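Bench log. Compound arrived from synthesis this morning; before running ITC I wanted a structural hypothesis for how flavin-adenine dinucleotide sits in the protein. Inputs:
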Amino acid sequence: MNIIVCIKQIMDPEIPTGKFKIDPEANRVIPSEGIPPVINPFDAQAIEVALRLKEANGANVTAITVGGQDVEDVVRYAISMGVDEGILVSDEAFKALNSFVTAFILSRAISRIGQYDLILCGRQAADRDAGHVGLMLGEMLNLPIITMAKAVTLSSDKFRVEHVITEGYQVYEVGMPALITISDEIGPPRRPSGWGVIAAAMGKEIPTWSAQDIGVNLSDVDIKSVRSETIRLFIPDSRRKGEVIQGNNVAEASANLMARLRADGII
Amino acid sequence: MAGYRGVLAFIETAEGKVTSTGREMLGVGRLLADALGETLDALLVGSDIEGVGRDVFSFGADRVFLVSDSLLAKYHPDLYTIAVSDACKQILPSIFLLPQDDVGRDIAPRVAAKLEIGLATDCIDLAIDPDTRLLLQTRRVYGGNATEVLVSRNAFPQLVTVKPRAMAQAKTDSNKQGEIITISVKLDASMARSKLLETVKEEIKGIKLEDAKVVVAGGRGIGGPEGFTLIHELAEVLGGAVGASRAPCDEGWVPTSYKIGQTGKVVTPDLYIAIGISGALQHTVGSLGSRCIVAINNDPEAKIFGVSDFKLVADYRDALPALINKYKEIISS
Amino acid sequence: MVEFDAIIVGAGPAGCACAYTLAKQQLKVLLIERGKFAGSKNMWGGALYGPVLGDLSPEFLKEAPIERYVKRRILSLLSEESYFSLESAVNNESPDVPQDGAIILRAKFDRWFAEKARKAGAILANGVQVEDLLWKDGSIVGVKVGKDEIHGSVVVACDGVNSILAQKAGLKAELNPVGVKQGVKEVIKLPLETIEQRFNIQGNEGIAWEFLGKCTRGLPGGGFIYTNKDSLSVGVVVQLNALLENKVKANDLLEDFKRQPVVARLIDGGTLVEYSSHLIPTYGVSSTSRLFSDRFLITGDAAGLVLGTGLILEGANFAIASGIAAAKAIVRAKETGDFSAKALSHYQRLLEDNFVLKDFKTFKKMTHVLENPRLYSTYPDLVCSLWHKIHTNDGNPRKSVRQLLKEELKGRVSWWQLARDLIHMGGSL
Ligand SMILES: Cc1cc2nc3c(=O)[nH]c(=O)nc-3n(C[C@H](O)[C@H](O)[C@H](O)COP(=O)(O)OP(=O)(O)OC[C@H]3O[C@@H](n4cnc5c(N)ncnc54)[C@H](O)[C@@H]3O)c2cc1C
Ligand SMILES: Cc1cc2nc3c(=O)[nH]c(=O)nc-3n(C[C@H](O)[C@H](O)[C@H](O)COP(=O)(O)OP(=O)(O)OC[C@H]3O[C@@H](n4cnc5c(N)ncnc54)[C@H](O)[C@@H]3O)c2cc1C
Ligand SMILES: Nc1ncnc2c1ncn2[C@@H]1O[C@H](COP(=O)(O)O)[C@@H](O)[C@H]1O
């Protein structure tokens, strides 16, 4: 079985609020010094699913990312977790892409890989929190798609997928090839082992494909990129007045709190 | 863009009635349609849904488009994607709204890909730019650290999904009438390429989290499943529901359906009590719309205090019994 | 099985210098760092003194991420009411000679340095913590990381002050609070213009400012401020055993220090962007310290190569120099295929020949002088007060300096003690 996992390098979503800075003129985020970018956490979970499938059924797992030259680290990270191959689809023009174009480029790159039985994506990239690329990619490749998976298993060439819904989950069965997006209910992904990191750092060159290599015409990409445009980016103010509830001890303070909620008509 | 007119809202129904999310869609849809001076239309997809039309009109829709097919009786991602995108191609709205719920999240990006248009998911605000008449699409990004406003200039319809509980519900006008238009879409069973085997609903004790007037949420600070008994007790006396940050769900102390936040539920109760929760943005974005937020944490520096109306610095094990007693005392007097 | 020529544990200045030098010589080098990236867990005052970085490559002096160069050094003695300062300045128009001290932020510098080693051919593994040495038949054959065993001909411990590897190899006992200092510091962000204004500097000029006296509540140690490009490094360094004996937290001293009016004015309006705490091994290395064994070397802080005399705090330059020396010894060992203690003893000879161990001998006496508690309470008070009185005109006839000094000394120190301290200090220079 061949599994392809689409991964993205993002700014650490757990960055302390005080360090999150934007350039309001350019409508973009200023990367914070000293806080290195990370793999999108949902993509690490997608890799986890791929590796579990590999362990249970045998598989060759390839991680692929689209971005500028500076995203090779995310592919190395995937390798340190245990994926077999990594591919970097990289072009200066690929630095800031919208969902549609990213999916389009991925679809071309994956067609070049050729043989696959399963494509895994994260439920969303925790930078812009869109949740588009996986579904758009599946559509472009004309694949059946199951989103928001919290468990994926394989039996007699069919995937059994637990798809998270508001009130619980649904079980779907889907044949090969398919595209599945992974949700955080899958649980924390494995951390790379020491040897995994060293092997990834020592590992062979990561194949890098340019736009031309995958038959993407950059002017095509430009046309498609203006579908959605950010015209404003700002840091919202969600502070509240934060009144401290006093009391001689916790019991008294708690009683004061309850009395206050009552007096304010909240309960 | 020429040819694309009006606001179309994808409306879901349950037991023959428009859902609360549906009413929110029609609420914001009406404002947008009025700003444009164009019609507000509803798109209903399902089987035997003709009867629901009237209910939709009462929430302000001018026209109702129906895609009715026995294959659409139950949600299936492939079939719904085809039904919705084909309908959209026939209706040609200028703006197309879907909810960011189980269905909208699942199909909107596929519809966007099929129609080769842009998409903004999980919008918290929508407005019409009076100069360009384009839709201003506001959404949170970077886990809630920032907010962005998008426009789609040259790909129509302008497709967005709407965050549940972010928009006011439509007012009812039981006299409102409108036109019901049936749309036919070619579907056959083979188009469904996956099979739904079963639906497992997690049992919910008491009131649904999303509908509760009071939500008592516990975090990692609760320390284990036992601690949640106290959380449940407080919720029960207050007539509220129990929620959680992601940590207790990951730890398996509570079901994942308790999760509130960016990847969990959005709640907007009158009273939100966050207990043993540090206040990561990914959590607090799920409760921002609450009327009053109380935080209980034994760390006076906890970030959660910055987004709360009342702060109680305390160990929850001491605070909760006292809160429960005081409430009982208030009620009995 | 993969076998490295050298496994270098810790990508601080010592580890990076060692890995870079070895990789340049085409050796198969593994550089292991437990932080998410090199420098992510590291801190210091601080400035890098001396030309040692240039020994690796002259280009490095230009390329390294240097915040500012030390243009002025200030030493201030703080008392309750006032302070007294000595200031020296480099006279050249625009200092860019690293000899004067290059003010550096570790998170940027170490990362840059590790990247240099990687580009030179070293394998850099970030986010990996070495837990133990790997032994076979009584000899070190590599390191252990979790369940994984990694093999190498020689292991270089560049793992800093708390070096567990040096302990596991039996070259060092557990850290003794006597002879160790604790440093705590904050990085406080301020607009570049504000810093230039407040410190009267421009361009790449910077200030290294040390404080003695009130800020440490009389404990042996001091405070410091270094000007970065658009932030200040503000901290205190105090003898660890004194902290423990007096049950004082270094962090509280830092808060005291920040409240000193001189300091408060300098950091006013800034935002705290980073807090960190780190130990400094100032026990000093003597000729009896052994910095090598079979297939094993220790460098930098792990080896205790820090000059921490209170007025001088230098470690990074020694770390780099020792890293280079270790690499040279390994290259030689590789040529003969002999990694025994005897072969590696070349390392210690190299250190003795260059400035590293020489400096330690020179400053050995100084350490004793600086243990004198009067230096941190009595004398700063005395000097400030005396200076103040000399300059005060309160309408009464002025007293002679001698008379004032006598009054100041009363109840604080005897003439005899003062004389002894002065002789001592003089002797140690
Ligand atoms: C992409 C992404 C998406 C995410 N989505 C979500 C999401 O949807 N929802 C969500 O909740 N999280 C989400 N997270 C995780 C989020 O970032 C935080 O890690 C998580 O919310 C932390 O949970 P917590 O506050 O319960 O735990 P902690 O951060 O560990 O905080 C525990 C708190 O309990 C306090 N405490 C400890 N003991 C006591 C006591 N005895 N009494 C009182 N207080 C005590 C502590 O002081 C502390 O403040 C997401 C993260 C990422 C990266
Ligand atoms: C407050 C303060 C101010 C200072 N000011 C100055 C100054 O102005 N000038 C000066 O020259 N020196 C100064 N020093 C001293 C200087 O910082 C050190 O001497 C120097 O950093 C030593 O370098 P090193 O490479 O030996 O060790 P470190 O810089 O401590 O590096 C050790 C590295 O090893 C890693 N590591 C540790 N254990 C493991 C493990 N088990 N597995 C993997 N990796 C591991 C660590 O993460 C770290 O990156 C100061 C120190 C302090 C604390
Ligand atoms: N640049 C990219 N390269 C590879 N995969 C991506 C990229 N961007 C997004 N993805 C995949 O698509 C998912 C959803 O991303 P998004 O639509 O941006 O929220 C991610 O979790 C990844 O699996």
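What the model suggests: Chains C and B do not touch (no CB pair under 8 Å). The two ends of chain C are 54 Å apart (CA to CA).
ITC booked for Thursday regardless.
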